[in-house]
Design brief:
The chain has two domains: 129 residues, no CATH class; 89 residues, GMP Synthetase, Chain A, domain 3 (2-Layer Sandwich). The two termini are 20 Å apart. The protein is 24% helix and 37% strand. Strands 1, 2, 3, 4, 5, 6, 7, 8, 9 and 10 form a ten-stranded antiparallel beta sheet that branches. The chain has 238 residues and is of the alpha+beta class.
Length: 238
């Protein structure tokens, strides 16, 4: 793929997180799961009293014939327009009871608005799964979203919309199990380890560009370059 300074396109994030029932202090009619520790490679290393964690929710969708990712984007836009509420929502896929389920990944800065947002999706042609008790478990999660990323260095990009996100481009996809092994090896050999890592890809004009997504704050440029070089060297051995 030719070298490009700016990408604006749809793509996907693939990550693994521990999901639990969301208990906001009231009885919820629908199945809403919460990332117990969002971006675990970062926030599990940070004192939550000093840096609050974002609330990432997953509204589990029933199997419905007319479900589509486009439907989620359109209904989220309609709800924001009609209500004035500010939130980020994206189509997602999670595993639950050894099955894949569609979901809506919800990031709402105003927690008090979550009940209204959930009810709005249910009343706008998206059939949410009824509430059930779920024991905490690890799920592979796929999230579709729009990317606007700009080049920093060779094979290293920064997110213009979500500044904590960085991307290391690679030439081919990796199985999740292999990726986890590489990340564990990186943490044991780098001079820093407070970062979260995920896989993903972005659509280009004539191809798909694979990457590793890195989530971290207050980063130094030399740390990112060290991480990029070490990671690319490791995957070149596969």
């Amino acid at each position: 793929m030719k070298d490009v300074d700016l990408f604006q396109s749809m793509g996907c994030i693939i990550k693994k997180e521990r999901l639990v029932n969301y208990y906001p202090g009231y009885t919820c009619r629908y199945l809403v799961l919460e990332s117990e520790v969002p971006y675990p490679g970062y926030y599990s290393m940070i004192d939550y009293k000093l840096e609050p964690r974002p609330l990432l929710l997953y509204l589990v969708v029933k199997n419905q014939k007319d479900y589509s990712e486009e439907l989620v984007f359109r209904k989220a836009s309609l709800i924001r327009e009609q209500s004035g509420m500010k939130f980020d929502a994206a189509p997602a896929e999670i595993t639950l009871f050894n099955r894949n389920y569609h979901a809506i990944r919800l990031n709402a800065s105003n927690v008090a608005q979550v009940p209204e947002i959930v009810a709005s999706f249910q009343s706008n042609d998206l059939q949410l799964h009824k509430h059930i008790e779920v024991k905490p478990y690890y799920s592979l999660i796929k999230i579709k979203r729009f990317f606007q990323i700009e080049k920093m260095e060779s094979n290293l990009y920064h997110d213009c919309l979500y500044p904590e996100n960085y991307y290391i481009f690679m030439n081919h996809p990796l199985p999740w199990e292999t990726f986890e092994q590489i990340i564990n090896h990186l943490r044991n050999n780098l001079t820093f380890s407070t970062f979260d890592a995920a896989l993903g890809y972005i659509f280009t004009q004539d191809d798909i560009q694979d990457f590793m997504r890195v989530y971290l704050k207050r980063t130094k440029g030399e740390d990112l370059i060290q991480l990029r070089d070490f990671y690319l060297r490791e995957i070149s051995r596969i």
